[in-house]
Automatic annotation (TrEMBL):
PROSITE patterns in the record: ABC_TRANSPORTER_1 (PS00211), ABC_TRANSPORTER_2 (PS50893)
InterPro entries per the UniProt record, alphabetical: AAA+_ATPase (IPR003593), ABC_transporter-like_ATP-bd (IPR003439), ABC_transporter-like_CS (IPR017871), Metal_Ion_Import_ABC (IPR050153), P-loop_NTPase (IPR027417)
Domain of life: Bacteria
Listed Gene3D superfamilies: P-loop containing nucleotide triphosphate hydrolases (3.40.50.300)
Protein name, as recorded: ABC transporter
Alphabetical keyword list: ATP-binding, Nucleotide-binding, Transport
Pfam families in the cross-refs: ABC_tran
Organism for this UniProt entry: Marichromatium gracile
Record domain ABC transporter: where: 7-238
Amino acid sequence: MSATPAIAVRDLSFAYDGALILERVDLTVLPGEFVGLVGPNAGGKSTLLRLILGLLSPQRGQIHVFGEPPRRAARHIGYVPQFPGFPRDFPIAVEQVVAMGRLGQGPWWGWTRRDDRAAARRALAAVGAEGLAERRIGALSGGQLQRVLLARALVTEPRLLILDEPTANVDQRAEGDIFDLLAGLDPRPTILVVSHDIAFISAYVHRVACLNRTLTCHPTDALDGELVQHLYGTRLRAVAHDLPGPCPGAHRHHT
Ligand SMILES: Nc1ncnc2c1ncn2[C@@H]1O[C@H](COP(=O)(O)OP(=O)(O)OP(=O)(O)O)[C@@H](O)[C@H]1O
């Protein structure tokens, strides 16, 4: 019997006020997969993530997360947004920011403060940032902040981790550190990560889903300059990697 997909998107179309952003998108992500979502600016990546998170509803098609509608599956999902939803100079400690990831996700009687603190410390340890717990959020470097946002997403021990450009504001070394960390998480959740850097993420992910209103999946070793040029309409850094790993449903072309 095959496993219930972590993400199953079927024949999905979405428009903002009549402007079509996603057209007949299909995407299956199996439990344990590490999938990159790439595409040009305004291609619809963040919109697709918001639909998978249940923050938007499609006009056409279905989405299931671990077999459930997205809102019902919210407790299984950790999310690292593109822009953190709080001002950097807000006087709040790292540990509190991480514990905020548990808001609204607890049992009906709520967690105790002590449980929140312990969970926050565990999540910070998982991303190698225990030493930052007492620091003010505004005093962190870009790379440190990304680790803390990752800890906030991991604090509920999600089965699915969704990240929207987690390394957009960090240098290349910090980018590598974050992706090494993601690849080494134990237990490692299923991961869907948006990135602009197709060459870089190809070294980490099993599969790349290319989105530009329609979606096409490729195993990482099938990516070449011609394909990327076609997708972006421009030349990017070379992309060719041989990676072992599962690639179910790969190389489907949606035209
Ligand atoms: N709330 C909204 N209302 C109307 N249009 C929107 C809204 N959010 C996004 N859009 C539009 O939808 C399109 C897709 O946006 P989206 O943010 O999903 O793309 P993206 O691929 O994530 O882009 P980027 O790589 O630049 O972050 C864009 O043209 C954007 O202007």
